[in-house]
Amino acid sequence: MSELLTTAYPWIKSLHLIAVIAWMAGMLYLPRLFVYHADAEVGSDKSETFKVMERRLLRAIMNPAMLLTFVFGALLLGTPGVIDWGAFWIWIKLAAVAGMTVAHHIFGKWRKDFAEDRNTRPSGTFRLANEIPTLFLIIIVIMVIARPF
Hints:
- There is one protein chain.
- By secondary structure, the chain is mostly helical.
- It has one domain (2-145).
- Helix content is 79%, strand content 0%.
- The longest helix has 37 residues, at 2-38.
- It starts with a helix and ends with a helix.
């Protein structure tokens, strides 16, 4: 198995990066939809359109992309010689991925609140939440590329 992972490494890494990009696109776009949805009148055509957009984004793009990110990431972690588990950067990166995953699930709960017309949060909450994935992304990229620790 390790020889197969080593041989397939460039492909696994490419597929991992594609999945990450798709996941991040959703993580950056969904809270922006929430900003506008929070200002839409409950029951309006606008609100109902946002519900459809949010559901499709989460279920058709974000959830599969997150899952594929984990699958290909796990394969990379299992590839011999790729990770020095004694280095600190990988642990910071994995903690940031865990944070991104928590944010994903919070966004999913918020989507459900909107779908059931139970949102009580103002648009400013979602404007702030929109910055969280960016911070995790910055940490992850720096840890993987620069490996400062």
